[in-house]
Glycoside hydrolase (Sphingopyxis bauzanensis), 251 residues
Amino acid sequence: MATGAIKRKGPASPGGNWRGTIACLLRRIGAAIVLLLLATGLALWWAARWTPDRAIYPTQGVTIDAGNGDVQWGSIKAAGADFAYVMGTDGTRGIDTKFTHNIVAAREAGVQTGAIHRYSLCQLATDQAANFIRHVPRRADALPAVVWLDYDDRCPDRPTRSLLLSELATFLAQIEAHMGKRSLIAPGPAFEFDYQVTKGIARTIWLRRDFFEPDYAAHPWAMWQANNYVRLSGANGTVGWNVLRPQGETP
């Protein structure tokens, strides 16, 4: 037998394989994160620009409040807004700081406007109506006022449905006498689920659901806030984008 024995290779050191596996895993995780960030960015870009097809909904407009800063209404009109609902009063004392400016500037730019009141479950209807009447002028060319119905973290009260409907009817009667026209009601999904306002109050309905047509009310919507993430030149942050159901269309 040869004096020089053949040396057999021992098992590979586990350290090298372990490090390679970890490096490969990290590369895959990094690639997945990059793809996720790209997809998120694309979704946000799309959401900021999407509005319903104007061939289906010819009349479209915006929801604006003080958070949108000093709005350039000429740019808003150029973006395709046929009308604007402007946040106005809130409860018994609240008033959007840009309300008067926005109403005047929008009309000067040729955009028809209407006022929104945020209804509070913690305050009397008559006091809320007084706040609305004090700050929202009656104009024949104004759009019908809107009563925004949502829960508010500042208000823990949850009245019975019968009490809410009674108070809401009082509020509507008073502001409608002031404005000379019937109002719209705009319940959010959770509020409508709990109180079924659209079954108890006979008013035109404005519903809200991003990207998908809403169907959570007792009656079909007349106006739909279809995207609350639209970004427009001429307004800070995001605006709500709304469409009207075409006249004569039945859902």
